[in-house]
Amino acid sequence: MTRRRLPGLGIVLLGFSLGAVAFLAGVWVGYVKPDYTLLDPLSEKAGLILKLPPALRPLGIFINNLLAATLTYVLTILLILPGLSVVGLNGYIVGTALKYAVDVKDLNLTVALLLIIPHGVLEIPAFLASVGFGMRCLIYCRGLRQTVENTLAMYAVTVPMLLAAAVIEIFITPAIAGVGGLGG
């Protein structure tokens, strides 16, 4: 008996694309009409992560992002729109953070982008993949076995990306942006 794989790579890519649109729309709205109060909880989380020993800081970021990606995946399975909303909200927060960096912290927009892009090239697609796999599960998963297989496939894609992004965020992104490292 051969095992049937879940179909739906096209659905994963559609979800990824819809997530990208939601994220980019969120970034634009966040930059044009920021709400700086949304950054307070992020500052608190960052403060907790910075209290960790330098070698454990990427693990703190990784765990936080893995939980957020899992939430995005589960919410997408429920009805698609909640997962897209989470991605759009993350985009809004990124846009708000960019605007804050430029207007309040007096950073050049290029430097502000350099604080996001190096690790964002892995982190953002991981969240978009969570939406895509969530859509595939919503449409194709029938029963526990298919749901588990889809979930494991989602983690096989997102975990390495989020882990690498966390290491880059702590040790490489600050150096590239020229703002000093967070690793020590």
Describe this structure in words.
The chain is an all-alpha fold. The protein has one domain. The protein contains eight helices and no strands. Helix 1 packs parallel to helix 4, helix 3 runs parallel beside helix 6 and helix 6 packs antiparallel against helix 7. The radius of gyration is 17 Å and the shape is globular. InterPro entries: SpoIIM-like (IPR002798). Keywords: Membrane, Transmembrane, Transmembrane helix.
Q: C-alpha Rg, in Å? A: 17 Å
**Mean residue pLDDT:** 92
What global shape is seen? globular
Class per helix and strand makeup: mainly alpha
> How far apart lie the N and C ends?
54 Å
Approximate strand percentage:
under 5%
Low-confidence stretches: none
Topology:
Layout: H1 9-32, H2 39-51, H3 57-79, H4 81-103, H5 109-114, H6 117-140, H7 144-171, H8 173-177
Helix pairs in contact: 1-4, 1-6, 3-4, 3-6, 3-7, 6-7
Transmembrane segments: 6-31, 66-89, 109-131, 152-177
InterPro entries: SpoIIM-like
Keywords: Membrane, Transmembrane, Transmembrane helix
Salient structural properties:
globular, 8 helices, mainly alpha, single chain, 184 residues
What is the structure about, briefly put?
With 184 residues, the chain is an all-alpha fold. The chain has helices spanning 9-32, 39-51, 57-79, 81-103, 109-114, 117-140, 144-171, 173-177.
